Amino acid sequence: YLVRKNGVPVPQVIRGNDEARFWSYVELTDDCWLWQGGTNKGYGCFREGHKVVRAHRYAYELIVGKLNPKLVIDHLCKVTSCVNPDHMEEVTTQENTRRHYAEVC
What Å distances lie between residue 25 and 10, 37, 82, 103, CA to CA? Predict the structure, then answer.
């Protein structure tokens, strides 16, 4: 294994099976499941077939089921790189925004 500066091993690249490849980028901790792959604005990005998807949304659909296209995911743990579905809740955009500003102010 190669090791990052922070001591976390770089996952080996797994080709083919999207699900196996996805889990190779997840570091399981006692609480959050941390995405170790590419990110955009703090959110994990994962290539599923020919499209790039948010890693937390992929994990949610893999474990919980299809997301309602009218809703967004709220990270209850407030860790945007977390892909643990137990730390996520489907909410409206308005509710997600309200919760964010309720914590900031």
Answer: 8, 5, 11, 30
Residue 47 CB neighbour total at 10 angstroms? 13
| Residue in 47, 30, 43 with CA at minimum distance from that of residue 75 | 43
Encoded amino acid at 73, one letter = I
How many residues in the chain?
A: 105
Tokens describing residue 86: 């137990």
> Which tens digits make up the pLDDT trace of 8-18?
666 555 556 88
Query: What are the residues facing 3 on neighbouring strands?
Result: 9
Tokens of 73: 């995911």
Residue pair 88/75 in contact (Cβ under 8 Å)? The answer is yes
How far is residue 40's CA from residue 32's CA, in Å, rounded to a whole number?
19
Helices (H), 1-105: 18-23, 55-63, 93-104
Per residue in 56-81, pLDDT (tens digit) is: 999 999 999 999 999 999 999 999 99
